[in-house]
Structure formats: C-alpha cells, structure tokens
Amino acid sequence: MNLTAVNQTDMCEDYSCPERSVSLSVYVILYVAAAAVALLTVCGNLLVMISVSHFKQLHTPANILILSLAASDLLVGVFVIPLHLSLLIESCWISGPVMCSIFKFVNFQPTSVSVHTVALIAVDRFLALSFPFFYSEKISLNVVCTAALLNWLFSLIYNFTLFYINGNFTDSVCPGECVYNIDGTSSIIDLLIVFVMPCTLIIILYTHVFVIAKKHATAIRALQVHNSTESSKNKISDKSERKAAMLLGILVFKALPVFLLCLLPYYITFLVIPYGSVINFVRDVAVIFFFLNSTINPIIYALFYSWFKKSLKLIFTFKVFHKDSSLMNVM
C-alpha cells in the first residue's frame, strides 16, 4: 500500500499543531463516528473469524482464505482506522514517534495482505469451477493454510524492506507529524505489487468464473426444460439454478465492484493529486474508502452467505457454548 511520497525537512522547530477549528459538539460527533466505524469493523470480522474457526463444517479451503481476510481486516479495525481517523480529526499526530512507526508499518501490512488474499480467493474459485477434480484431490486445508501463511510472510518481508530502505523506522519525525518516506521508484513498485498485479489477476480470473457460472446456469435451464414433465426434478432444478444465480451474484457484487470501488479512488487520487495540495481532503476521503473495504466485507458475508447467517444466530443465542456445538450444521 503506497500512501504518499514525502520529503522530510529539518524545520521541525517551526512546526506546531494547528488549533482545533471545530466546536466541541462536532468534535465529539466525529470521534463517536470514528469509534463506531472501528467497532463495526472489529466486531464484524471477529464474528467471521469465530464462525469459521469454531464450526468444523466450515473448515474448507475457501473459508480458510476468508478467515485470513477477516484477520487482516480485523487488524485494520483495531489499529489503522482508529489512529488514521484520529489523525484526520486532530490534524496532528498526538501518539508519539514510536507509535508512529508502528502505525505506518501496520497500515501497510494488513491492507496488502487483504488485497493479496482476495486474489488468492479468486484463484481458489477459478480452480474449483474450472478444474473440480484437480481441486478436490490437490487443494487441501494444509495447502490453503500454507498459501495463506506464505501470503502473510511475503507481505511482512516486503513491507519491512520497503520501510527500511526508505528510512521509515527512524525517529527523525517532527513532533505532531507522522508521514511516510516513500520515494518515486518504491511508489511505482508498490503500486504494481499491491494493486496492479493482484487486481489484474482478480479481474481476469473472475471474468472466467463469470463465464463458467453462466454456462452452468444455462445448462441447468436446459436440463429443466428437458425434464419439465417431471415435477420433482423440476423443483430440484429450480433450486440448483437459484443457487447458481446466487453464486454468480456474489462473485459479481462482492469481488469486483465493491472491492475495486474501494481501492480505485485511493490509487487514482494519490497518483493525480500532489502532496501538500489544497484539495488534500479528496485524498483523505479516498483513504477512508480504502479502509472501509475492511468494514464492508463482513456485511457482504451477512447478506449473501447463508452459513454466516446461521453462525451468527448460534453465536448470539449462546449455543456455541453448548457441548459439541462445533459439530452443528450451519450449511
């Protein structure tokens, strides 16, 4: 994730935090809204993690990747969103240089993991629909867990190297500031690795998945017409077709528009708007949209995944504390 390219100066002694220009009531409202967004992000992703971890029926390769995505989104809700929104509200960094270094690194790590995990989910869905026999034989829980761990490890090494090369772990930051040192070359590399390459892969694979799912739906309709005289088969066909249509809707609604619409404004503004511009508020709004993707993901699960709805019902009714609750049917 490339936030900005900033050259630090030696004029720290001239820097002072701007005085708050909003009334106390507006100030409180802003912090309440920020806390609500962070809390929604944390609780939503925590519920996803509890559901996938607790119920053995959900221990599938696809859901392991959803668990990894929820973990990265949880970190965004715990660390990134509160600190970033606080910085926007205060217009000044008030948490000190050590916390600034932690904030900068944690800012990059879960967001890059999140983007690459979505790409892994696209690969998983493509293999499952395009090569079902290969998928059932070769893609096991161990394989997917290894892929998810390697994704986290790659992001950790990549972001640490990116920050170390650009001197982001030093304490030479002006009091009240928390800025990123990312040079032009590193910015282009980061753009390619964290956005262009994974998003291109996502678009290509989900386009193939869209075509495959559409062919499946067409085949189901043809079978329905062929067996139209048999009412029982007709009902089964109707149900299967609805499931195929729902799968197609999930893929189209979640993977492409929502995901890309959250990321595209961010990267466009940071490529077009220079740092220090008078329209920096556009950049700030784009960053908020980027982070809101972590808030939206659990909401999409709740809207479209029946297993998540059933899991929530069991969690909120405290049935997960019953003996052998992990064996309950949630599909």
Give the total of domains. 1
CATH fold naming: Rhopdopsin 7-helix transmembrane proteins
Mean pLDDT: 77
Euclidean distance between termini CA atoms: 36 Å
Q: What class would the helix/strand composition place it in?
A: mainly alpha
Compressed to H and E, one letter per element, the order equals HHHHHHHHH
Based on the structure given, which CATH architecture is correct? Up-down Bundle
Q: Strand tally, please?
A: 0
- Class, according to the CATH hierarchy? Mainly Alpha
Main location: membrane
Domain G-protein coupled receptors family 1 profile: 44-301
Membrane topology: Multi-pass membrane protein
Subcellular location: Cell membrane
Layout of strands and helices, then pairs:
Elements: H1 24-54, H2 61-90, H3 96-130, H4 132-138, H5 141-165, H6 184-226, H7 231-272, H8 280-304, H9 306-316
Search tags:
single chain; 331 residues; mainly alpha; Rhopdopsin 7-helix transmembrane proteins; 9 helices; disordered N terminus; TAAR; receptor; membrane; GPCR_Rhodpsn
Task: Note down, in words, how this protein is organized.
The chain has helices at residues 24-54, 61-90, 96-130, 132-138, 141-165, 184-226, 231-272, 280-304, 306-316. The two termini are 36 Å apart. The longest helix has 43 residues, at 184-226. It has nine helices and no strands. With 331 residues, it is mainly α. It has one domain (23-327): Rhodopsin 7-helix transmembrane proteins (Rhopdopsin 7-helix transmembrane proteins), CATH 1.20.1070.10.
